[in-house]
């Protein structure tokens, strides 16, 4: 599929919309006129499929969801039929030696020239360990790595226990993770935005998404296993 021919109902004006796939929503009636004469339908217009599969009367064409299920339409089973259809397509393409796999190259950090502000703040994105909200904000928006944010405070005894533990774990994943230490007394607005209720606390982020919050001091293994699974 490379595109869709669109015709306006009022003016009959035609245009082509480039698209690699089509999700055909039918509402409460099988609006399947698009398929008449091409795929076998029942008397009500629903697509006929082989029982227990997504296979239609045309080889390599599979149906999913409401358009092939008039008994359970709009039910949660529609999502399951979508999975069946997707897997059927994959197996069909594999059997015909038509399946192509595309592997996304690993994301690399873009090496940018340091700005004047970076120099003032002592920030370098290629380094693994950082401190302060400036580094946190820069890494949050610019780094593809997993980011580990350690929230501490000067009077926190457990923080002094956790720092060397976490630092050693981070050393094991030098180019896969960033560690940012935030002193909540110096950057209280950051702690408030992150809803940090006490220290020590560790939050993990990747691609601007918060993955996990770990409060208190945990075994080194717990941090290591999470980083390994999400790096």
From TrEMBL:
Pfam family, one: Thioredoxin
Keywords from the UniProt entry: Flavoprotein, Oxidoreductase
GO molecular function, one term: oxidoreductase activity
InterPro entries assigned to the protein according to its UniProt record, in alphabetical order: FAD/NAD-bd_sf, FAD/NAD-binding_dom, Ferredoxin-NADP_redctase_2, Thioredoxin-like_sf, Thioredoxin_domain
SUPFAM superfamilies per UniProt: FAD/NAD(P)-binding domain, Thioredoxin-like
GO BP terms: cellular response to toxic substance
Domain of life: Eukaryota
Limits of the Thioredoxin domain: 116-231
Record bears the keyword Oxidoreductase: yes
UniProt family annotation: Belongs to the class-II pyridine nucleotide-disulfide oxidoreductase family.
Protein name: Putative ovule protein
Organism: Solanum chacoense
